[in-house]
Design goal:
The structure is a single chain. The protein contains 10 helices and 11 strands. With 290 residues, the chain is α/β, with parallel strands linked by helices. It folds into 2 domains: 94 residues, Rossmann fold; 123 residues, NAD(P)-binding Rossmann-like Domain (Rossmann fold), CATH 3.40.50. It has a 6-stranded parallel β-sheet with strand order 1-11-8-7-5-6. Helix 1 packs parallel to helix 10 and helix 6 crosses helix 10. The longest helix has 23 residues. The protein binds nicotinamide-adenine-dinucleotide (NAD). The site of nicotinamide-adenine-dinucleotide (NAD) has 24 residues, from helix 10.
Length: 290
């Protein structure tokens, strides 16, 4: 069997186009554009690439982008003061502080300072709590993008057996909660899981978010499984995921490539969350399936 390759780029482009259409309606109704503020501290080159891509996608969707670049030795108090200023700014609907932050700054302090209703990254404990108990809030963009890919591929996920490999606050845990919300039977595997191949083999849906190049092998998979590869690993052979694509695509029913799978969905979901934030703040009605 050769798996269908899930086209994350195309699904992300469709989501961004949907958001752009609704942004246009929002602008004519309210007379302003939704705004995303992105804060970058220091010169980390990967972070700078992400911030540029986020700013570009924001503008392409018809939204306003406010970029704040701070030097790497910025004191924590200055960053917190900027967050306070953005929290109070009515033109700003979404605030994103790019991680990682330099060592003199406590990331938890910064994340918890962001107004939860502008926290479009979904990292604030209030939004983590809302997700856990099924209230509207903001869901982290990467797992939200994975859920959208799964729904696009499989439709109703109800009753499916899902294994999430990885338990980080940014990907694994929210991913598991989203799948539970869609009525999957969910297992979270992690670095202490015994016999990971046996755990993975019972899954209809596998989401790999580990950060280890080509770890999940084709022989671990249930034939026909849908595989979402979140991993981004730089190797001598270039960028690869956490799933061994060559062997997995012989067994899986459908699989995301790296690059071109989950990555484009992450940015599309950030744009989506920013629009949703603006819509909620203005009482603007939007298509809930967005
Ligand atoms: P993390 O390091 O915070 O978490 C990794 C998780 O993997 C941990 O919970 C750990 O328990 C688990 N793990 C480690 N070794 C394991 C093993 N041998 N077997 C089973 N589980 C093991 O990483 P993260 O932030 O969740 O990111 C995971 C991967 O996803 C990374 O490669 C990261 O670059 C990538 N990522 C991609 C995007 C995107 O937009 N595509 C976004 C975020 C993260």
């Amino acid at each position: 069997m050769t798996a269908k390759v899930i086209d994350g780029k195309a699904i992300a482009a469709a989501l961004r186009a949907d958001v752009a259409t609704q942004v246009a309606a929002f602008r004519s109704a309210t007379g302003r554009a939704p705004g995303l503020a992105v804060v970058l501290v220091g010169e980390d080159s990967a972070s700078a690439v992400y911030v540029r891509a986020k700013g570009k996608a924001t503008l392409e969707a018809g939204m306003a982008s406010f970029e704040h670049k701070l030097v790497s030795n910025t004191p924590e108090a200055d960053l917190l003061a900027l967050v306070d200023q953005l929290n109070a700014d009515p033109a700003v609907d979404g605030i994103l502080v790019q991680l990682p932050l330099p060592p003199q700054i406590d990331a938890t302090k910064v994340i918890t300072r962001i107004d939860p209703d502008k926290d479009v990254d979904g990292f604030h404990p209030v939004n983590a709590g809302r997700l856990a108990i099924g209230l509207d809030g903001f869901v982290p963009c990467t797992p939200l993008g994975c859920l959208k890919l799964l729904r696009a591929e499989l439709g109703d996920l109800s009753g499916k057996s899902a294994v999430v490999i990885g338990r980080s606050n940014i990907v694994g845990k929210p991913m598991a909660l989203l799948l539970l919300g869609d009525s999957c039977t969910v297992t979270i595997a992690h670095s202490r899981t015994t016999d990971l191949p046996a755990v993975v083999r019972q899954a209809d849906i596998v989401v790999a978010a580990v950060g280890r190049a080509n770890m999940v092998k084709g022989e671990w998979l249930k034939p026909g499984a849908t595989v979402i590869d979140v991993g981004i690993n730089r190797t001598e052979a270039g960028l690869v995921g956490d799933v061994d694509f060559a062997s997995a695509s012989e067994v899986a029913g459908a699989i995301t490539p790296v690059p071109g799978g989950v990555g484009p969905m992450t940015i599309a979901c950030l744009i989506r969350n920013t629009f949703v934030s603006a819509a909620r703040r203005e009482g603007f009605r939007y298509e809930k399936q967005l």
